[in-house]
């Protein structure tokens, strides 16, 4: 038939024009720069994050992302003779959590606020027995260097009175009276 062209099967189809390819490449590069810049800007908004070395900052961000939480602030602390970078993590509907990493990004310790009914039975009984008229405020599970302890905070007449640490078996590990860093009602 005349006037109707049939496509040639052996002839390669035209590729993306060079100008269009350059525009796509430029757009992709601009998006990458924007993402990197935005990530850096978010770090600047987190109090204390600038003090953390790059490996520690990356480890904290990964831990928070994996937990589905946001970093609220970062503090530099000493755990024994080791300097750690400790982040407070929060998320709606989740228990508060803290994670401490070393300068090279290794997790040194984790703390998580948990309900009393989620601690081992021996620990729960020890926490209740140590209340001595004070109101139990909160308990945290602390994992550090392969060991787990439970930290109980008590309030008496609106003032923090004690912070007590227990092992998994409910054995008293450490007691601090009039703990100034415990939350007050």
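-> sequence recovered:
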């Amino acid at each position: 038939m005349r006037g109707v062209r049939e496509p040639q099967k052996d002839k390669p189809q035209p590729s993306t024009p060079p100008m269009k390819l350059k525009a796509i490449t430029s757009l992709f590069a601009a998006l990458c720069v924007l993402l990197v810049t935005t990530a850096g800007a978010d770090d600047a908004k987190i109090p204390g994050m600038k003090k953390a070395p790059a490996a520690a900052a990356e480890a904290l961000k990964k831990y928070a992302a994996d937990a589905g939480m946001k970093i609220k602030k970062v503090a530099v602390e000493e755990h024994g003779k080791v300097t750690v970078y400790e982040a407070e993590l929060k998320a709606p509907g989740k228990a508060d959590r803290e994670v401490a990493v070393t300068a090279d990004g290794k997790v040194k310790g984790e703390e998580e606020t948990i309900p009393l009914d989620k601690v081992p039975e021996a620990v729960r009984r020890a926490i209740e027995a140590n209340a001595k008229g004070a109101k139990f405020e909160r308990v945290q599970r602390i994992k550090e260097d392969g060991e787990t302890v439970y930290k109980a905070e008590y309030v008496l007449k609106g003032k923090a009175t004690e912070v007590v640490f227990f092992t998994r078996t409910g054995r008293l590990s450490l007691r601090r009276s009039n703990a100034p860093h415990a939350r007050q009602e």
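The CA atoms of residues 31 and 51 lie 28 Å apart.
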